[in-house]
Design goal:
alpha/beta, 33% helix, globular
Length: 723
Amino acid sequence: MFDAPSAHAASSVPAPLSAPLPAPFPAGRTGVLTRALLRMPHLATFLDSDLLFRPALLQFGDQPVTALAGKEGLPSAAGTRELALSHNLPYLALEDGFLRSLALPGRDAPTCSLIADSVGLFYDADHPSYLENLLNSSGWETPSLMADAERAMRAMLAARLSKYNHAPHASPYQLCTPSNRTRILVIDQWEGDPKVSSGKADAETFRLMLEQAHKAHPGAAVFIKPHPLTLAGKKRGYLATLAAEYGTRVIEHDFSAPSLLAQADEVYTVSSLMGFEALLQGKPVHCFGVPFYAGWGLTRDRIPCPRRTRRRGVTEIFAAAYILSSRYVNPITGEACSIHEIIRLLAGQRRQNDANRGYAACLGFSGRAVRKTGYFLWSTNGNMQFFRDASSAVDEAAMRKKPSCPARVVVRASQEPGDLAARCAAAGLPLIRTAWGILRPPVENAGPLPLSLARDKQGMYYDASRPSELEHILSDSPQLNEPDMLARARALRESMLSLYARPFPEQDPEAAAMLEELDRADAVRGNRPLFVVAGQLVAAPRGKDSRVEGHEREEEILRFLRRKNPDALLARVVFGRPGRRARKWEPGPEDLHLRLPDPGPLLHRAARITALHTVDSLAGFYALLYGIPVNTWGTPFYAGWGLTDDALAFTRRTRVLTLDALVAGCLILYPSYYDWYSGQFCGPEEICHILTRPRPPLPLRERLVRWVQQNLFWRFRDNGLPL
């Protein structure tokens, strides 16, 4: 399977492939020689191989490993390569993929993609690589693969994703020039970047590139885009000292690569990945080095590469580089996945990160709510403080407000002062109301830390007295008609069925006894219908004009159902565990009275339930997922969209939705999600996955760090950025 034991050994062009296969990895165990590489998150999953630390390589007999792996850029890579060559073992050169993470490399930014090449390095122009051999061969360009690549390219461009996705998008006028001059974007890299030397370039190449950009475009506006590590102060760029000499403007702030490329007319690069991202946007690209995408007829190359003999399109290079040569692992679930899942995850992380930029004055949070909410409001370029007084919060936010730093007031919806909205409007500040989100785990999986947060600039999803962002999404969002969004919602809904449908509540003898009573009554009822009246045991805030009294209205529902269905079996169910804020609940003369920790055990009996009646319980939303007819007597967020039989009229809700569209709006587009295990933003798919599949405990050192972050950090620092 492997033609060369080392990265620099000669390799012939492989035979045409009959199907799109991932890059070849050796079966068996892979040897790792350094602890730094061994600690790389999900490395075994990336390689689909067991890892053996510092294997004993015997001169005779069976080898304990089938390959050695080394991370390019680490000092140990050269020694690992030589050891593999001396023992006639394949050497896997590891390099971060082209869609890496939200933030720059660090402890809290594990890579989402990895390239492991047993032939060479994809950026080494002096030697072949698996990617180069693949592009020189034929037979792998199947219609399904090309369609897959086109879909991924469209999604990447729509979400404006790059290798790193922490930087804000540039304003549409960032590269603005008088008289509509041509805009030339010159891409800088950091000194010592192996992609420069391996791409047949050096410091003089950057000088030549900048000089040529000015000569070839007299009168044009030339801009230098520094590398993100240079702007972060971690590295030094090649063009920093040359900008003043040539009178070139340097973009001093870190902006996302796609937003800058969209404004450029032509792009000059040595070997940066931004050159290929410019090709994705249809920009002319001048290459002064030999990156992996040069030499295939797409770029204007200064240095030829005779080994690259074919002509390739952007889609083919994308398919070979991003799909066939790269491996992807979801950093939240730790499982191998496709590029589409990583695009979806990074797009969601970027959306939450962008929403949290700037300054946030938080009000109405105390105790544990501070640390819980703070992580949902975290950003790579954000700042927050917590206040007890509304005036202080509004004044501080108004003082911090700048054109380059948006400011806002964030309030706990249940603790909002009556005059806060007027104060914020007078100060020109947006007011963000927060509450825990709609997707909540079953009680048996519920921990002390929430998993989702609803943030709303207009109202709140449970308050029907005024419009909310959720109502706006469900009424007007065109995304609810997109096939990809509906397919995603359908898959999410199906994954939730197994999450909530449990045959009996575990570790709750009282609830189990109640369900046994329901089963006995159901067994003797014959063909009588079964109506469930769902209440809510734990009190929750509701809208001012919801026109229902909760407990009292549930009594009315029971009396109504008894009059309309004298032979039916009625079951009044309340969900949640009794607590200090428990709503009063006393059994009446109706048939059955059940108290369950969550709707799961009841929904397991979905086929036997004729209809579910509720005032405003969240159980009505989950019942819709299981195909149970739902009658609403109040104003819950899921009523009025054509999916429920409603006793009240909803004048603002005129759009008729499918169940998948409702799920997409309520669980995908509206809330934000956070995974406390990995410390990252995520999506509802990851939440369902981690609730159904237990994960191994974190190492003791990591648990101590997390405990300090989540308990002590918020007490000693007003500036609420997580460590």
